[in-house]
Write a sequence for this structure.
């Protein structure tokens, strides 16, 4: 242990050092769709949708299957993350222009009519004259078109099975009514907006660590007391590290709505997603699913990123301080973000919502299934009587609990 007994001069700044100003966004628009029509490459039909069983787009007319190209390695220059500097972003992650209307008017390539798409609700519409499907391929600067999409790989049937298994395994907690009223048709596929971030950072942490030197007792009988003598050290550590594909939510809307607070928590517990398999935008991936528009710019998400980077830094230094057998208390920290790069991405989640009333108080509960891995988590409505019975059996005290987040692996 060679930590200096002297604290650094002056108070270390808790304010992270910002990277250099952004360069222009790197274009990620799907060039192939630039003519405005999203056609099957084989027969030209516009009846396109995702087939989750294969993760491919399928033409409903000729059954041809294909996929958009992977985004990984296609947008940013390939260099080690430890050399990353400044801020680089994909064009789909650019700041949202609040003056841009969500409603986009498209000219139908089939018959020339004008067709309206409200991008707040859908990314495609059918021309009511010639029945062509028109899709939003252009990156409208309202947050609706991301840099990349991670397509659903789990079918609706597989999601329903995962939810049944989840609720079934927790029979002792789950409200009987929930099980009775489970409605598979209400399991819906939603693409949720995330920022996927790579970073190159360094951090310094300062604090005090304690080493136990001896334990002894004094007195006897009822006056017997145990004493612990410890040496206190001032501890300082520096760590340089990189992060690859951190996923951070880019929709604030749900966080601000009470009934949805829980959804956020639930969805964070079904991470991670295999973001390396994300592909270029094609609205065909969204057919039959809903999506939620991004409403946060990078500047609003930056503090969340810095918070996550600091926790990574603390966990990186922890193996080097195990010698302090009574622990280390970190008191100051300083983060330097040398470089970041950002891509906006839609990630697939199967969601089941359930309205439940307990003693006249209504609550919405959710079960979420990762649309890639099948990882399932939920806020299952809990009947108070049954939960109390279970708690008494294990000796735990539970007060007025109507909701329990139950781990899928429990
Ligand atoms: Zn076709
Ligand atoms: Zn038309």
């Amino acid at each position: 242990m060679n930590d200096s007994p002297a604290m650094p001069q002056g108070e270390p700044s808790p304010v992270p050092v910002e990277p250099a100003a952004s360069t222009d966004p790197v274009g990620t628009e799907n060039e192939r769709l630039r003519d405005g029509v999203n056609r099957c490459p084989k027969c030209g039909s516009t009846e396109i949708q995702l087939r989750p069983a294969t993760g491919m787009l399928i033409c409903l007319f000729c059954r041809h299957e294909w996929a958009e190209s992977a985004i990984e390695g296609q947008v940013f220059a390939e260099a080690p993350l430890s050399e990353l500097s400044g801020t680089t972003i994909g064009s789909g992650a650019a700041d949202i222009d609040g003056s841009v209307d969500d409603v986009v008017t498209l000219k139908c390539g089939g018959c020339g009519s004008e067709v309206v798409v409200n991008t707040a609700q859908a990314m495609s519409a059918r021309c009511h004259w010639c029945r062509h499907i028109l899709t939003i391929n252009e990156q409208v600067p309202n947050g609706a078109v991301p840099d990349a999409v991670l397509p659903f790989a789990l079918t609706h049937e597989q999601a329903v099975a995962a939810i049944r298994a989840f609720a079934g395994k927790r029979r002792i907690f789950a409200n009987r009514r929930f099980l009775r009223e489970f409605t598979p048709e209400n399991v819906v596929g939603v693409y949720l907006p995330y920022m996927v971030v790579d970073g190159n950072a360094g951090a310094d942490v300062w604090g005090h660590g304690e080493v136990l030197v001896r334990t002894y007792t004094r007195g006897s009988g009822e006056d017997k007391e145990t004493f612990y003598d410890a040496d206190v050290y001032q501890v300082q550590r520096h760590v340089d590290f990189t992060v690859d594909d951190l996923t951070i939510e880019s929709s604030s809307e749900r966080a601000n709505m009470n009934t949805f607070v829980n959804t956020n928590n639930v969805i964070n517990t079904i991470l991670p997603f295999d973001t390396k398999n994300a592909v270029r935008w094609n609205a065909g991936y969204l057919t039959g699913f809903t999506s939620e528009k991004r409403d946060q710019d990078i500047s609003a998400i930056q503090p969340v990123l810095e918070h996550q980077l600091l926790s990574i830094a603390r966990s990186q230094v922890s193996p080097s301080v195990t010698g302090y057998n009574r622990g280390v208390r970190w008191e100051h920290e300083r983060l330097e973000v040398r470089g970041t790069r950002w891509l906006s991405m839609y990630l697939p989640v199967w969601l089941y919502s359930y309205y439940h009333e307990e003693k006249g108080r209504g609550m919405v509960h959710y079960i979420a299934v990762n649309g890639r891995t099948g990882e399932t988590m939920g806020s299952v409505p809990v009947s108070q009587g049954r939960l109390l019975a279970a708690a008494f059996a294990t000796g735990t005290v539970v007060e007025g609990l109507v909701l329990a987040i139950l781990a899928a692996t429990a």
